[in-house]
Amino acid sequence: MTAVAETTTSRARLSRRLAEELRQWPVTLKTGTGIITAVVLAGIFAPWLTPYDPYYQDLINALQAPGWEHPFGTDMFGRDIFARVLYGIRIDMQIGFFTTYVPMTYGVMLGALAGYYRRWFDAILMRVLDVAVAFPFLVLIIVIIAILGPGVHNIYVAVFLVAWAMYARLARAEMLVERTKDYVLAARVLGFGSGRIVFGHALPNIISSSIVFSMSDFVLNILLVSGLSFLGLGVQPPEPEWGAMIAEGRDFILDAWWICTLPGLMVVLTGTGLSLIGDGLARRLGHSRKSLV
Amino acid sequence: MDNAPVSTPSRPGTTDDILVLRGVTTEFRGRRTRIRANDDISLAIKRGTTLGIVGESGSGKSVLCRSILRLLPPLADVHTTGVVEYEGRDLLMLNEAEMRRLRGTELRMVFQNPMTSLNPVWPIGDQITEGLRVHGGLSNVGAREKAIELLGRVGIPSPERRVDEYPFQWSGGMLQRAVIAMAMAGAPKLLFADEPTTALDVTIQDQILALLLELQERTGMTLVLVSHDLAVVAETCDHIAVMYGGRIVETAPTKAIFDGPRHPYTLGLLRSIPQVSVGAKRLTPIPGQPPDLAQLGPGCPFAPRCAYASPDCTTTPIRLRSATTDHFTACLHPERIVQAAA
Amino acid sequence: MPFLNYIANRLLQMVPVVLGVSLVGFFAIHLVPGDPIQIMMHGRATPETVAAMRVQLGLDRPLIEQYGRFVASALVGDFGQSIIQKQGVGGIVGERVLPTIFLLLYSTVLAILIALPLSLIAARYSDRLIDHTIRIGGMVGFAMPPFWVGLLLMLFFGLTLKWFPVSGLGEGFVDRTRHLFLPSVTIALFLAPILVQSLRAAMLEVMTADYIEVARAKGLTPRRILLKHVLRNALIPVITILAVNIGWLLSGAVVVEYVFSYPGLGSLLVRAVSYRDYPVIQGLSIVFAVLVIAVNLMADLSYILVDRRVLKT
Predict the structure, then answer these.
(1) Rounded-to-integer distance, Cα A7 and Cα A97, Å
(2) What is the rounded CA–CA span in Å between residue B172 and residue B152?
(3) Which of A196, B36, B101, C22 is the most exposed place for a label (fewest CB within 10 A)?
(4) Could you give the CA distance from residue B153 to residue B133 in angstroms, rounded to a whole number?
(5) For the purposes of burial, counting CB atoms within 10 Å of the CB of C46, is it exposed (0-12), middle (13-18) or buried (19 or more)?
(6) Distance between CA atoms of A20 and A259, rounded to whole angstroms?
(7) Which of C18, C139, C153 would you mutate first to test chain A, the one with the most A CBs within 10 A?
(8) How high is the mean pLDDT in each 10-residue block of chain A (293 residues)?
């Protein structure tokens, strides 16, 4: 009897805590999360939201303006653009997600370790970071793709090779400050191993700025993927990636403006949603808005 | 002579007084709160004297100085009512341009933290004479000369060498001297010093206080010294005004405050000064916490912490009443303290 | 003396970075899968020609020596021959450097012109509605892909309204600025949101500083305080921010140059990549990196003019 009562009350307590937490969320966080949730769900449930196949070419109905039949119109091959945009969510969000969070994990780790241990490891990392940062990000990715060839697979390789640098810098800078704090010194005096101190104690305090930064990085990565696909170096046709769609529509820009414009709006919507989350997270995690981005 | 302003031997607002405050109230209005940082402040300061304003953080003493000089943040929702009479003019009624002119010359202020009081990217000399260059039409060459002279007056060694240096090259004590030099630049008649020594080492504190007194003697200006430290104020001031919860709770000549305080808070402050003597006893702190200025009741703000309070203390509004000719207290029952101290 | 120390220090720090850059640039070609000569000849050469080329290009020598020769030639601007254009890479790249720099300068100026007033307003009215609006607007601007914005601007202002030309460089100064306007605005719109937020933060930090209150207590006019005290101090982080974001400026320039067919380094890169013109790619990547390093160096040097505290270290 008591066991059952306990589980229900603890579940009630959990849901109450969740409700408490959500109430504390700033407007931007709620709005952003709402937008992104809607986008992700739209991507997942795309087959239910549109009857069209994003790859199906219906040449008779090519270059139709937006209307009842085709909410976003059709492109030069008669493909329904709304369907392509929806299915494109899967591509862009997925690539954006992995290109952001995978490098973040090892980037933050490397930076934190370098910032904590200093000496030779730090010195080497700093030099590597200096060189990595000297190249403009897009240029570096393009060069790597030039070597490896275009395609999604190689985008991942290129980004995984390069993107960790930003996180490493951020984590290192934060760790340099953190390691002087009293709780870290106390842990050392208590004889805790360095690994435990870095990962168990210091890192959780550092991670919040990296998480906030990752939201902007997510946006930039979506812009990167769509940019590369626009240039023909990324996702290859006939995949419905937003940037690729914009490139396809370029030649028809005067006659069929919807091919270019609408996928771009999708990018803006998604990017704005992510930035809102980042802004709200920063507030929620207690970052003063005076701190430089 | 109920609510007469302090430090006037005879009547309020004589030409002897350089500054007279009447019912000055400053309110900060937030979205949901109203904070009365200063409530019904009435005060008269005689020309050429030194007034010490004592109180804890949150007592409203810093806000008072800024209310008088109208230096409160321009973007905050602040309302100051009452009369601030300086040399016969109500400062609260002046337009901003007039106020600026006064601030640049006759009414000056020295702030608490010398390390952040100066612009880090300007040479010190330029900052000292900036006011003169803007208001007094001083030339650049003349300004540099003047800066050297002022730095010499506040005791900076080799001022002709140091006048072009930057704040990061100077220590805290020297910077505070530079800030004082900056304040003296316009030959002020009234100088406010808001915790001028709090951020400095104890040995430097003495030097700075001595410097302020020396400058006052030489120029005949009036000095208002704000501090949380009763000991600092006791050394330097002729009169003391004690503030609590946004109000003045007691004012009197310094000696009178120490010989016979007539407010429980003042008594508490005196008792918490460590006595350096043989057989040191335990310090008696004032129990409780400073009040939340957004949640003050109608009565005495000190009542919750007062050992001599009675029920009427929390409901009856307080005013400064005269106990003797120049000793005023806002306590409803000052006789209880006199008994206790006896 | 402290001046020289500082400058020498900065220059010395640059050296390992430039070396690292050159290493990366050198090895980039050697990482290409397959035989470099076959790639260069597009697989159309006989084995004898390939062998002869190998000796001629020195590809049979040890890597260290190859690297040495690479650096030596690079220092005189010789980056080899373009596979496609049968012309020296140095020359091809060289004639495109100025147009890109011109574009970058123009974009930066426009970005500052947009960002400065917005950030001033946001800082002055911080936490009020206008501040939030500017912030949200910045987020939307940040999320707009530069190539998309470029296309739309091109469509609207170039092709429909015909106010500005949509490609090329133009002749003469005034004509150039007309040609450059749309591409520069595109890049500026991408950069501005970042600038606004950073400038706003910098200004807030300065505005709430003690010495600003002291300046008011001196009776200075708000205008003088703003110009001589606030801006001067806020300028320091601004220089940092501009320098740090030069990489993004260049990245944006690559895409925008391509969209507007602007004859700069960016469009050259895109073309070289699609043709696998590795010598050009190699030369370009090094030039880009040098540009970034140079800008950062200039930023470091400009600090001396604005804030003497940097000489302390």
Answers:
(1) 36
(2) 17
(3) A196
(4) 19
(5) exposed
(6) 44
(7) C139
(8) 60 83 84 91 87 83 81 84 90 93 92 84 85 86 85 90 90 85 85 80 82 91 92 86 90 84 92 92 71 32
